[in-house]
Specification:
Number of strands of chain B: 0
Number of helices of chain A: 6
Largest interface: A-B, 28 and 39 residues
CATH superfamily of the largest domain in chain B: Tetratricopeptide repeat domain
Strand content of chain A: 25-35%
Radius of gyration of chain A: 20 Å
Structural class of chain B: mainly alpha
CATH class of the largest domain in chain A: Alpha Beta
Largest sheet of chain B: none
Distance between the termini of chain A: 47 Å
Strand content of chain B: under 5%
Number of helices of chain B: 28
Order of helices and strands of chain A: HEEEHEEEEEHEHEHEEEEH
Distance between the termini of chain B: 66 Å
CATH class of the largest domain in chain B: Mainly Alpha
Strand order of the largest sheet of chain A: 3-2-1-4-5
CATH topology of the largest domain in chain A: Glutaredoxin
CATH superfamily of the largest domain in chain A: Glutaredoxin
Number of domains of chain B: 3
Oligomer: heterodimer
Structural class of chain A: alpha+beta
Number of strands of chain A: 14
Number of domains of chain A: 2
Helix content of chain B: 55-70%
Shape of chain A: elongated
Shape of chain B: elongated
Helix content of chain A: 10-25%
Order of helices and strands of chain B: HHHHHHHHHHHHHHHHHHHHHHHHHHHH
Chain lengths: 260, 533
């Protein structure tokens, strides 16, 4: 007892801000891609043991969290985990939970080719939602810039076992030629980064994307989803203010999962 | 955490936020650049300003854009100007037009002042287009053969307003227009544009000019009525320039003329209602707002990006006019129509919401129920449903407090006053804003009603009188910020407690505020009938 007390007396604690990459409930551990912790630790992806069993039960990959990291002489652990998701916008009732399979869809890509959900199976797929005339630099252009960076970072795997998919929330305006021009603007590899239009509402609802029109504008939240090779939702990140390395960590994790 | 929206959401919803906070009398510019092609439309009003262009078609679209701009139809005006620019990319004036209308501030200066005083000024996402167009216009005017001297002056004024480094962009624009008029003193467009940007409105409750510019604008507009009697902008700006003044009736001829000149723009059909309402012509106000609503519903159906905030403002005012006219069912029906518009997801997630059709419909129903003293309906929990946001929670508990007090249930009214305070604290906690001034007046008024229910009549009349004074000093807005004049309630309670002198004075105040207010008129006449020999 005295020994345990001395551990805590010598302990330091650090606030941590990161995105959950994976959750292992059996070992009560979460893998987190976190921002720098002051001078203690630079940004990186690392596992943290979670104090108590309750806090880990409701965590899923992609969630943004803040917690306190307690570092003692003999052990360290995370506690006081708070989810700090970005949007208060209510999710659609059709929104999938992690582990659930995405439904069938049939959409058109920037080459005018019909893309069916079945074609995506066997590959890891990162899906975001954009619209080409979005006037807000911190939203759609930022999401597309991040996908362009992912395309560079995973060169060699893109088109083979990783696909990037950007689905428009403005399908009436974003026709195939409009998407083709947008894809060229971002230097998209047509085989590995698909821009999809058509009846997007069902897949948007499944992935938690909410969008609407109002006063000459299209409003939307921004959900980026990672679909595993098994066609099931592996992770979902809310917003566009995540760091590229955090999304990369989620993609890498999904690529590792189910590797043969 | 509930109240926190991230930068992402705020940015993604910037148009909705602007709409939430500002008044919606002038429809906002489109966040997204309007799509082309534009069409030449009928019913926009006829305006002509000869511009330097190689294309007769570009001149036509420019003139249409100018006419639409003068009716504050920013989105369609920009579309027309963009079409003119597409037809003649070298012409500077279509760029000038985009620079004016995409900024979201082509509206009476007193509305800009009010938004600043209420800390609800915002820069719309379309401002980037306005600034880019201003830069392009300047470039084009620098090519000597491509612009007249007059055009250079027009462009210089808007370029000053769109310069992000400018400390006082509105005054820089005014200075630019004065420079233009120094060189071209008879230029009608120049005079018109100057008048809009110097009209600072009138104060409440004394209806005095807020600044010298107010009366200078009035003088300019009176002159233009003679010189350009068929210019739609002249009549539109007369209505704005005279509203809230002691001489608002002088705008009646323009109220007749303006919708005749511009029969297809909802705002042109709507605006005469402002003057009719404040001069006691409630039936004509109803006709104006109803005509605007019919027109606007057609446009809303045709354009999925149209939005509902201007319709919300117009039909809210329609409900208010019906209510002052004494038409309970019509007022409630107008409120219900708006309330049926859903909140969009951003509005639903925001801690405060006042500008959309849904919120305006709720407020219209609430103000109607209170003005008609429908205490049972207010208390039934169905007719005035809970809105789910603290601002409306406060208003709802205020209305319920009035209802309980009106039925003689002082203790239950006290409970509602407590709930009102909780909602006010929630409002501040969730929005990080100070208490809205009009709700502070509501607090004062509720106190008076509770005192009356407790039988402390003299104190009640004092409290209500103080609330009435505070209510009459609220910032000018249309429809009025406060649900109905406190003087109506003061008169009603005084009359019930056999204080006819106080009642007469109170009803006279209400009628001065709102001529022909059926609730003040009816009570005075009705009570006199019972007391007359």
């Amino acid at each position: 007892m005295l020994g345990l007390l001395s551990v805590f007396l010598a302990a330091h604690s650090y606030p941590v801000d990161g995105i959950v990459v994976a959750v292992d409930r059996a070992s009560q551990t979460m893998l987190v891609s976190h921002r720098p912790m002051g001078r203690y630790m630079p940004a990186m992806t690392m596992p943290f043991r979670v104090e108590g069993s309750a806090e880990i039960q409701t965590l899923y990959p992609g969630e943004r969290v803040r917690f306190e990291l307690v570092v003692g002489r003999a052990q360290s652990f995370a506690r006081h985990i708070v989810k700090t998701g970005e949007s208060e916008i209510a999710p659609p009732k059709e929104k999938l939970h992690p582990g659930e399979a995405i439904g069938d869809f049939e959409l058109q890509d920037q080459r005018g080719r019909t893309v069916r959900s079945a074609e995506l199976h066997g590959k890891v797929v990162a899906i975001d939602f954009i619209y080409t005339r979005c006037p807000l630099p911190n939203v759609c252009p930022r999401l597309s810039a991040n996908f362009a960076a992912l395309q560079r970072r995973f060169r060699g795997r893109i088109g083979n076992d990783l696909l990037l998919v950007s689905i428009t929330v403005d399908p009436q305006f974003d026709t195939v030629p409009v998407l083709a021009a947008y894809a060229r603007r971002w230097g998209a590899d047509d085989a590995g980064w698909l821009f999809l239009t058509g009846d997007v509402a069902p897949i948007a609802a499944q992935l938690g994307e909410v969008y609407w029109t109002d006063e000459g504008a299209i409003g939307h939240n921004s959900i980026t989803s990672i679909i595993g090779r098994d066609g099931r939702l592996a992770a979902a990140v809310d917003g566009s203010s995540w760091r590229l390395d955090q999304l990369s960590a989620l993609v890498e994790r999904a690529l590792e999962e189910g590797r043969e | 955490m509930k109240a926190r929206l991230t930068i992402l959401v705020l940015l993604a919803l910037a148009p909705a936020v602007a709409q939430k906070t500002g008044d919606n009398c002038a429809p906002p510019p489109s966040a997204l650049a309007p799509e082309l092609p534009a069409k030449l439309l009928s019913g926009m009003g006829t305006v002509h300003l000869a511009i330097t262009t190689s294309s007769a078609e570009a001149q036509k679209f420019f003139d249409q854009g100018l006419a639409q701009m003068h009716s504050f139809w920013a989105r369609e005006a920009e579309r027309s100007f963009l079409q003119a620019a597409a037809l003649d990319p070298e012409a500077p004036m279509p760029q000038w037009g985009v620079a004016i209308v995409a900024g979201g501030d082509w509206r009476p200066r007193f509305q800009i002042d009010t938004n600043a005083r209420m800390n609800i000024s915002s820069v719309p996402p379309s401002m980037a287009r306005a600034r880019a167009a201003a830069r392009r216009a300047v470039e084009l005017t620098q090519v000597s053969a491509k612009a007249s001297d007059l055009e250079r002056l027009f462009v210089a004024a808007v370029a000053a307003r769109r310069n992000p480094e400018q400390k006082d962009p509105d005054e820089a624009f005014v200075k630019g227009m004065r420079a233009l008029l120094a060189r071209y003193p008879d230029n009608i467009e120049g005079q018109l544009e100057l008048s809009l940007m110097i009209m600072r409105g009138f104060s409440l409750p004394d209806k005095k000019p807020n600044a010298p510019g107010t009366m200078e604008a009035v003088a300019i507009l009176r002159g233009l009525l003679q010189r350009a009697p068929d210019h739609p902008g002249v009549h539109h700006y007369v209505i704005h320039g005279f509203e809230g003044s002691t001489f608002a009736k002088d705008a009646w001829p323009s109220c007749e003329k303006y919708p005749q000149l511009v029969p297809a723009i909802p705002h042109a059909l709507h605006m005469p209602g402002h003057i009719y309402a404040q001069t006691g012509r409630w039936e004509d106000a109803v006709k104006a707002f109803d005509a605007a609503a019919r027109s606007e519903r057609v446009w809303m159906k045709q354009d999925r990006l149209y939005g509902d905030s201007h319709h919300g403002h117009n039909v809210h005012y329609l409900a208010t006019a019906y209510s002052f006219e004494g038409e309970f069912e019509d007022a409630m029906q107008a409120g219900r129509e708006l309330f049926a518009y859903p909140l969009n997801p951003a509005q639903a997630a925001a801690p405060d919401q006042v500008g959309g059709a849904h919120a305006q419909g709720w407020f219209a129903m609430m103000r109607t129920l209170v003005q008609f003293e429908k205490w049972d309906a207010i208390l039934d929990g169905q007719t005035l449903p809970a809105f789910g946001k603290p601002r409306q929670d406060a208003w709802r508990h205020w209305a319920r407090g009035l209802a309980q007090a009106g039925k003689g249930n002082a203790a239950a009214a006290q409970d509602e006053a407590q709930a009102f305070e909780t909602a006010m604290a929630d409002f501040q906690q969730q929005t990080k804003h100070r208490e809205p001034t009009e709700l502070q007046v509501a607090r004062q008024e509720l106190k008076g009603h509770i005192e009356a229910a407790e039988g402390r009549i003299d104190q009640a009349l004092k409290s209500l009188d103080a609330a009435s004074v505070a209510e009459r000093k609220l910032l000018y807005s249309e429809p009025p910020q406060y649900p109905r004049p406190v003087a109506e309630a003061l008169g009603s309670i005084a009359m019930k407690n056999n204080k006819p002198a106080i009642a007469d004075r109170a009803f006279a105040i209400a009628l001065e505020q709102y001529p022909n207010d059926a609730h003040a008129k009816r009570t005075t006449v009705g009570e006199r009938k019972t007391t007359a020999p």
